Amino acid sequence: MKREMSVCGSPPPVTCGLFPETPVVTLEGILPAGYLSPGDRIVTRSGGAAPLRAVVLGPCTLAPVLLRAGALGAGMPVSDIRLAPDQEVLVRGDIARRFFGTSEALLPARRLPGAERLHETPRLCLLTLHFDRPHVFYAEGVELASGEPIAPRRLPSEAEAAVDAR
Asked: How far apart are the C-alpha atoms of 38 and 57, rounded to whole Å?
């Protein structure tokens, strides 16, 4: 099947989602998010492969963050990845324990240890993947939350202040 890259229109601005070049693990292999369309089967952490129901495009008004290869542990991410500032990332182990006292937690990309704010100002397009229910899927070895947050959590105020101070 011939695939075409999605083009950003003029819907309401968003701050979470994927950039069109973000590689996503599907049953067809690794595909850029901009080539995904409803019906594609995305490999998920929670339920094998889930059919994609919608890909929603929107302009990102905030600068993205860069997460360097290995910032979250060996192979996480596999290579540098640009993320929307509010894209939720599933973290585990020491990072989750440090922020939440649990073995795993969702954090917005801008709050991840080692996330670098990029100073890109051109109009950027984000794609949000929607399924029948929320899922965690894979991009560059990082586990990302789909659509609405799966388990929204707020950073404790002292942890939030420490992250903002960097």
From this structure: 13
Low-confidence ranges of the chain (pLDDT < 50): 1-2, 6-7, 149-166
Task: Tell whether pTM > 0.85.
Answer: no
Contacts 24+ apart (CB under 8 A), 72-81: 72/112, 72/113, 72/114, 72/142, 75/141, 76/141, 76/142, 77/139, 77/140, 77/141, 77/142, 78/140, 78/141, 79/140, 81/22, 81/139, 81/140, 81/142
Residue pLDDT, tens place only, 51-82: 999 898 888 878 889 999 988 888 889 999 99
Question: Is there a contact between 147 and 134 (Cβ–Cβ < 8 Å)?
Answer: yes
Neighbours of 35 (CB within 10 A): 18
Closest listed residue to residue 155, CA positions, set 99, 73, 98:
99
